[in-house]
Design a protein that fits this description.
single chain, about 160 residues, Rossmann fold, six-stranded parallel β-sheet, 6 helices
Length: about 160
């Protein structure tokens, strides 16, 4: 059971993932979480670091798609700024959003990984789908009580960042 909460790879932040790393691991496509992975929670502005990273990935031929549990009004404008396709209302940790995204990408699931900042949605959903998971630490800790509760529950399962 603990397997479901264990990420395949761990990075400090999404921009630390390199095309070289992905190539070595034969990963040709990434399914990207939105909030606290590409930007802070509910922030409509795309950070320059995310824009630069997306361009680097695209230049390397890595297919990218956002898979978010958020609704279309949140995801659509952000995805448009990045020039990325998306699946909103992904229902993570259920695998529906991941399944739709992998099919749309036209890749074998063995060549896809999902990137996100939450153990109980992003990592667990990836593991349930049978794809590799890339855990990144949240850009910023959320202040709301539900998020603080969720983060406290995740604490025993948080991976260590290897230097």
């Amino acid at each position: 059971m603990i397997f479901f909460f264990k990420p395949t790879y761990v990075f400090d932040k999404v921009v630390d993932i390199t095309p070289e790393f992905l190539s070595k691991k034969q990963i040709k496509g990434l399914l990207l979480d939105l909030d606290n992975t590409l930007t802070t929670h509910n922030n409509p502005v795309v950070p320059q670091s995310s824009l630069d990273w997306i361009e680097k990935m695209k230049a390397a031929g890595i297919k990218l798609m956002i898979v978010s549990n958020n609704h279309a009004p949140r995801v659509t404008p952000f995805a448009q700024q990045l020039g990325l396709e998306f699946e909103c209302e992904g229902a993570k940790p259920l695998t529906f959003g991941y399944s739709r995204a992998i099919k749309r990408m036209g890749l074998e699931k063995r060549n896809v990984a999902a990137v996100g900042d939450q153990i109980f949605t992003d990592v667990m959903g990836s593991n349930l789908k049978g794809i590799r998971s890339v855990f990144v630490f949240p850009i910023k800790q959320e202040e709301s009580l539900p998020f603080r509760f969720k983060r406290a529950c995740e604490k025993p399962f948080l991976p260590k960042l290897e230097k």
